[in-house]
Amino acid sequence: MINKNVVIAALARDCDKSLVSNIPRIDKLRKEFAWSQVVVIENDSKDNTKEILNTWSTQSEGVKIISNDFGTVTIPQVSSEIPSPNTSSYRIGKMVRYRNMYLDYIRTIQHTIDYLIIIDIDIEDFSVDGIVKSILSAKEDWGGIFANGITKKEFNGKVFSKIFYDIFAVQECPLPDRIGFTPQSLDYRQKTIGKIINRNYFTSVVSAFGGVGIYKYNIIRDYKYYVVPNCENENEALCEHIPFNIEIIKAGYMNYISKDLYVLYGDHSFGAILATKIHRKLFKFFFYFYKIFIH
User: For 159-169, what is each residue's pLDDT tens digit?
Assistant: First the structure.
């Protein structure tokens, strides 16, 4: 058990199936702390998300649900103004708005808060033990600790492949003068970051997320999320976590990805596996074998 106080925050929209499994995990996580409260910002759900969250808040002490219908779409359609919907300023601006809602609420809590844990409540799985172990074993200089969030592929009940998922939130050290991204830079980071994480219990980064972020609350209590354009493409914006996490670095603290803070986003396709260098080579070999011996 960690003798500290924690607030756990999340965003929720159309994630009723994930809530069924993740609410018990969050309840288990809360028991690892001396005091805890949960705040969930929900918007525009069309499935049973609202009902499940409201039931949770009525049956569990310290669960605050802030629910609104803004009439916004989750991801906008491709257009001349929004050529890349997932990384568009529109989408990032929407995420910034919702995340600032839980920060605003947390500031009204009349209780000492040691940690803020942010969880993507629509992920498939996360390790409660990994969160606890990461906090207890981290270096004293940490300001943020982030998850080793992956997708996986199983074959005959065994994990055949793991791929680091949340590349968009990652900014490697050192802090550059200008921050931006291209499809090529994201692809390169996708191929390298997993190897770095596997070699270290804690990997120093400027920014990451991976489905779970842990913050020392006294460091970030006055921070806000905001939209920062991608310096490589004015139609896009940086992931909202990057400007937020940069403030921690500027304040003199360190951010880390914890190898043991396991998060599972779900399964990836064999196409995703073949996108990596080693599997592309294997594919070429088997294709060559196929042409010679089959045809």
Answer: 557 889 999 99
Residue 294 in any domain: the answer is: no
Instruction: CATH number of the domain at 100, please.
Output: 3.90.550.10
Q: Is 239 inside any structural domain?
A: yes
Residue at 47: amino acid letter: D
- Domains in the chain, number: 1
Q: What is the helix, strand, coil percentage profile of the chain, to 5?
A: 40, 30, 30
Q: Are strands 115-119 and 2-12 parallel, antiparallel or unpaired?
A: parallel
Structure confidence at residue 280 (pLDDT): 39
Work out the number of other CB atoms within 10 angstroms of the CB of residue 14. Answer: 17
Tokens found for residue 117: 């844990």
Q: 44 lies in which domain range? A: 2-269
Measured at the CA of 88, the angle between CA 74 and CA 210, to 5 degrees, comes to 70
Residue in 7, 62, 14, 5 with CA at minimum distance from that of residue 33: 5
